[in-house]
Amino acid sequence: MSRLSGLGTWPVLFSLAAAPGFTQNADPATSPESPLSAIEWLNPTPTVTLDIGLPPEEPPVSEGLSTPDIAISSLDDNGHDAAGLLPSSVTGLPASLWSASQATDLSTLVRAQRPDVLPAMQALLYTLLLAEADAPRNAGVANELLIARIDKLIEMGALEQAGALLERAGPDTPALFARWFDVTLLMGEEQRACDALMQAPHLAPDYAARIFCTARSGDWRAAALTLDTAKALGLISEEMDALLLRFLDPDLFEGEPLLVAAGPVTPLKFRLYEAIGETQSTTGLPRAYAHADLRDTAGWKAQLEASERLARTSALHENRLLGIYSERKPAASGMIWDRVAALQALDAAIAANDTAKVADTLPAAWAAMQQVHLEVPFARIYGPALLKLPLQGVTARLARDIALLSSDYEKAARSGPRDFLAGLALGAPPRVTTDPVHRAISDAFHGAGVPQEISTMLARGQLGEGILTAMSLMDDGAAGNLGALTDALATLRAVGLEDTARRAALQIALLDTRG
């Protein structure tokens, strides 16, 4: 006999608000029939702006952009490592990006990339993770590279991109389906994954997922019976058993003490705790869980903290961040409220085109963004506007430096002093400089060679592997390894990623990247 004496009303699962997501620099018009038009993150509210490394004046690879279909379908019998959302015509990267490398080597390099690196490297990483390219030469059916790419997107908090990539590949193996299931849970779209699970129960990650989806399908008694069986056979943990019991019949446990989380959090546990009215704090949880705090049901402070966290990995577009900052007037002071007040004051001054007020409010707003390492999103929002104002003195220099972190970095270089930063932005930093960081950067623009290891990779046609290796070197360079910094920048320039190299170098020169 089931432990559930009755089946209560289906608990309301509040859906997660979908964060705006990824887009290319180019924003091609698509017809209403385009299969991508229904995906919110491909609309003109982007999360990630692709920096694919083309010099600012270089023409695009092709005159038109193609948009891939998004559907659940098997690519071929060799696995799905070739799957991607961005074709070569968008990324500028060749179809042979991965094909000369071993899947295991590529997967190891992808997993080694840090999600909170320089914004220029984040943009390049998104390009690589979403690129459509031929599979590695020993790909097989394990989907090793695809899984590493998806896991990295989830780690960065880029759930919509991860979900779309999974659907493009087809979550038709247990490993891929488990990730799709987790992504849909975190986005509040689990019904789609549950519908698919009921059609293919062999893909279920575990018994808990099968029970959860069986209940969502409306077969509460079958879900309860399966739970009893799984518990009797020791196939489910005590914590998950208690959660599912309360989920299936919350009235049975009314008045009982709250559950205490006993094991590592999972997306299913997180959603079940929420469903039974015991929502867990996302503080301290992996970044992907922060999406839960972007919903209207969350408090403004929680939304602010979540948006800052996601914006640091470019998983949330800066315009969305600004929208949350501007939602209302802060009712308190200190910490995050001071940041909100400082940003709102600057935003109002720029909107009013009041140069004097901009000069008064810019230093405080910039300092506030430095506290949370959001300087580059801030520069993307305000850099171009600051260049248009007749600022003077120290404030003018600060505005110029901020604009150097934006897409208008070449324009900023021509609007201020002809110093090292201006030369760097234009691709020709001075050869002689006393600053050791500047000297390491300058060396990369004046004849430094590609490291032998990467040079060998490139000679073998292992372009993707070489780029990922250079990105790891850039991480070391940003932390203070000046030799690695020179090697990374020289490699990026050698493979044609000039724009990315300049942006990364400017960010290292202008920001404190050693923290």
Spell out the blueprint of helices and strands.
Elements: H1 88-91, H2 103-112, H3 119-130, H4 144-156, H5 159-169, H6 174-187, H7 190-199, H8 207-216, H9 220-232, H10 238-248, H11 267-275, H12 300-311, H13 318-325, H14 336-351, H15 355-371, H16 375-387, H17 393-403, H18 409-415, H19 420-425, H20 436-445, H21 452-459, H22 463-478, H23 482-494, H24 498-510
Helix pairs in contact: 2-4, 2-22, 3-24, 4-5, 4-6, 5-6, 6-7, 6-11, 7-8, 8-9, 8-10, 9-10, 10-11, 12-13, 14-15, 16-17, 20-23, 21-22, 22-23, 23-24
Short descriptors:
515 residues; 24 helices; single chain; flat; 52% helix; mainly alpha
How is this structure best described in words?
Among the domains are: 40-187, no CATH class; 424-510, no CATH class. Helix content is 52%, strand content 0%. It has helices at residues 88-91, 103-112, 119-130, 144-156, 159-169, 174-187, 190-199, 207-216, 220-232, 238-248, 267-275, 300-311, 318-325, 336-351, 355-371, 375-387, 393-403, 409-415, 420-425, 436-445, 452-459, 463-478, 482-494, 498-510. Helix 8 (207-216) runs antiparallel to helix 9. The protein starts with 87 loop residues before the first helix and ends in a 5-residue tail after the last helix.
What's this, in brief?
About 50% of the residues lie in helices and about 0% in strands. With about 525 residues, it is mainly α. Helix 3 runs antiparallel to helix 24.
